[in-house]
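Progress note, sequence design subtask.
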């Protein structure tokens, strides 16, 4: 039996209408799990770069690229969740 991880606060707000699917998809869909992990890592990395010594991003281009990647991942996560929401429950 798998122990479910607690969702982060950001996960709950990212897709409020679909957040009930996150635990199931994390268990059943390796691609979803990998994307979610990458999204969380990017989020932490962006925060770290933006708040170094409280002076803002040290490398604005890197932060911008990370934000673009994070947004693409979020779009793919959303598509996976929408697809799962449309599938009939057994």
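Output:
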């Amino acid at each position: 039996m798998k122990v479910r991880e607690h969702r982060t606060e950001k996960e709950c707000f990212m897709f409020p209408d679909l957040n009930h699917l996150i635990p199931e998809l994390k268990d059943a869909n390796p691609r979803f799990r990998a994307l979610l992990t990458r999204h969380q890592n990017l989020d932490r990395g962006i925060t770290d770069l933006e708040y170094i010594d409280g002076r803002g991003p040290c490398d604005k281009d890197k932060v911008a690229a990370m934000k673009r990647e994070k947004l693409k991942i979020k779009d793919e996560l959303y598509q996976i969740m929408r697809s799962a929401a449309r599938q009939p429950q057994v």
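DSSP finds four helices and no strands in the chain. Work on this subtask will continue into the next period as scheduled.
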